[in-house]
Amino acid sequence: MRKLPARVPENQRLGTILTNPGGPGVSGSAFVASGGQDMSTIVEGKYDIIGFDPRGVNLTGPPTACLNVESKFVLREYQLQLQGAPFPSLDNTSQREHIRRLSAIQAGHDEACERNGNPNMLQSVGTVAVARDMARIAEALGEDGVNFWGYSYGTILGATFAAIKPNLVKRMVLDGVADSELYFNDILEWGRATMHDTSKTLTGFLSTCIDAGPNLCSLAVPPVGSNETQTVDSLRKRLDALYLRLAQEPLIIPDSRTAGSGFLKASDVQSLIFTVLYNPISWGALADALVQVERDNGVTAYNALYGSFAQIEPRSYSQNIYNRSMQSYGTRESLYPILCGDSEYLNMTNDGYSNYIRELGRISPAGEQWALVVGGCRGWASRSRERYTGPWTTKDGFPILFVSLDADPVTPLPSAVKMSRAFGNESATLLVQHGIAHPSLCTVQNIRDYFVSGKVPKNGTYCTP
């Protein structure tokens, strides 16, 4: 774990905030190193900020040990990206062949864990175990409860803690809320629910580009041979046309310098868009890359997707300054033992998987990409020793502050509404931020007042940029 100390004198210090950035499988210690200062500024430096690596993640050991070097997981990610989702949807014969190859790549992780992995750790990395660890961390620090700030999957961890340790909840902000009930009980429905607002977010990207205009967003410039003013609808049609063209003939990349030579296919572009929707600060660069692909130059997009694979080194997990097992590349090594172990066993045929991918594609413009995440749990053998399946109606020591955008690519507003209602008005309140690409001083002030003064916003508070 890593601590960013409070900046105020001891007599003004309010305690410790534990944080989790999401995933599951993202390093909390690395998150505090990169983003802890921003969190500290919001709470006026009055808390220590501690990011910890949950069980099976990064520096926390012992490792699950499914493969002996991390570069093997990186190569698996490369195979998965190269195969890609069957997008746009293929004819039945081609779709079956594609799904067979995709399934073989995805099944390799679970089979490696069954053959090589540490079974005790694979059954001990679940969310409930980590929630109990949070109570132990607070106890070791001499705190009488837990202050917590969780994002995305971190909201599932926080909600689980609040449900099983309600008397230990002090201040808890759950930001970008996932549906905890579906996460544990129905992973397929969780996948569907997660995609609820992705289309709104894509519309936000496109409309922000139109509002910025041709001088600031290259995608707002009419394509070659057209003088028509661009609209959200016309940009969607351009994306659809680009997908269709790349599905018929992938774009050859002779030399991308960083990632070498290769080709760019439709699912690559869909994957890139989905990834960047999380990060509005990069939307301008995404627009530039898409225009370049339209003009048969896919180097920027290819580098963004494949450049990291060219940097891998086949070194031992313990070959680092800490001389202990550490993850360096951000693969899905930790994601699946946690996600799949927390959920019910997923028994799904290849045809069922194909249908699910198509279904999510109808729900969301990035649904095929999310279906691949869920599909990684097909046949996953190991289950967490302890799983929490509800209820979520526990009365907590202090009301939880749920925070949600009204359009988010993977943590939709309906999930926040559902979870806040489940805990009830005495134990939870919901703050909604309007707008996608703009920060809100209102949201920051409400979070600050909640942590610093214990002021709970009125349920349904709506913040604008």
Automatic annotation (TrEMBL):
Protein name: Alpha/beta hydrolase fold protein
Pfam families in the cross-refs: Abhydrolase_1, Abhydrolase_4
Family as reported in the entry's similarity comment: Belongs to the peptidase S33 family.
Domain Peptidase S33 tripeptidyl aminopeptidase-like C-terminal: 366-463
The organism of origin for this protein: Rhizoctonia solani 123E
Keyword Metal-binding assigned: no
Entry keyword set: Hydrolase
GO function term, MF aspect, one: hydrolase activity
Record-linked InterPro entries: AB_hydrolase_1 (IPR000073), AB_hydrolase_fold (IPR029058), Pept_S33_TAP-like_C (IPR013595), Serine_prot/Carboxylest_S33 (IPR051601)
Occurrences of domain AB hydrolase-1 (ranges): 17-197
Keyword Hydrolase: yes
PANTHER family to which the protein is assigned, alphabetical: 2-SUCCINYL-6-HYDROXY-2,4-CYCLOHEXADIENE-1-CARBOXYLATE SYNTHASE, AB HYDROLASE-1 DOMAIN-CONTAINING PROTEIN-RELATED
